[in-house]
Structures are given as C-alpha cells and as structure tokens.
Specification:
By secondary structure, the protein is an all-alpha fold. The chain has four helices and no strands.
Length: 91
Amino acid sequence: MELKYFLKAASKRERAEVATVCNDSVSYLYQLAGKHRYASALMAARIEAQTRTVAAGTDGRLATVPRETLVRYPEIFERDEPYLMVAEERP
C-alpha cells in the first residue's frame, strides 16, 4: 500500500501514531506521500515498521507501507545485508 492511500484510509489517531513514533509530524508524512520529499533509509524503515504495527490492528483496512516506496533510490534495500533494518526487525 502506498503511503498516500494509507494516510487517506487511516484515522486521525492512526496517522498521529505513525508520525509520533517516527519523531515527525503528520504534515511530513503527507509531504512524503505526495513525493515532495523523500525519506532517509532509516526513516523509511521506521515508517514501514510502524505502519505494519498499526495495520495489524485494523482487520485488513490498512496495509504495510513498503520502505522502497518512500526513498529516492529504492535499490538500496535490495542488498543482502540487513544493515538498514530497524532494531526491532533484526533477527
């Protein structure tokens, strides 16, 4: 699911939860969704992890936003090394 569709379908509280955990504002998330800005690799991983958490409690209404859709160069995530994972995702 793209971030713009996630934000459109999410409630105000769900949007705020994603923004708060990522240490940003909802306005910044809208800038990312509109491709006016691009997230860093670490921020993209955080947003992916938090949208996965939020989506898990919505009974299929929301889905995870893949980190590849949030960065300027998505090929950085195609490496075999998991060094760009958030601490919660590491094996």
